[in-house]
Write a structure and sequence with these properties.
Length: about 160
């Protein structure tokens, strides 16, 4: 099954997920449409539910599968960059969830703004070391989202 050039291999899974978590529905639709428009017939765009093997977690994922990739973006480089991007994203989520559970007095709203709120809360309550580490992970994740070359990373996002 598919909608607007986007393949949805397990539509029932997506429906159930969006019934439980309706917030990303509009964003997912917009991102799928943008990906389908950007890649057109040169790629297969699909919306799928990713289930983590390490954590009790699942989330919507948009996959773009191409027969040919641009120069320098071959399978080996693509997998390496994707692995780092995924690792940073998952690390940020795990660190955030751990901190949110253990920082007394913080009440998450289960929205994207919770990350920034938690960092501010930690700073206000003299937990600057936690705030600094979460802030660094946020910077790394932003670099993953916007920088093409993830392979040259070192320990600090500001050291590039």
């Amino acid at each position: 099954m598919g909608v607007g050039g986007v393949r949805i291999p397990q539509p029932d899974e997506i429906r159930v997920y969006l019934a439980l978590f309706p917030d990303p529905a509009d964003l997912a639709a917009d991102l799928c449409a943008a990906a389908a428009q950007r890649f057109g017939d040169r790629a297969q765009v699909s919306l799928e539910l990713y289930r983590s093997r390490e954590f009790d977690d699942e989330y919507l994922t948009i996959y773009v599968r191409q027969e040919r990739y641009e120069s320098g973006a071959g399978p080996r480089n693509r997998r390496w960059g994707s692995a780092k991007r995924s690792a940073v994203s998952r690390t940020l989520l795990a660190a955030y969830c751990h901190a949110a559970r253990h920082v007394r007095g913080f009440a998450p709203d289960r929205r994207a703004s919770d990350h920034g709120r938690l960092i501010a809360f930690c700073r206000q309550h003299r937990l600057s070391d936690v705030a600094d580490k979460l802030g660094r992970l946020e910077q790394w994740r932003a670099q993953c989202d916007y920088d093409d070359d993830v392979q040259t990373w070192t320990k600090s996002p500001s050291s590039r």
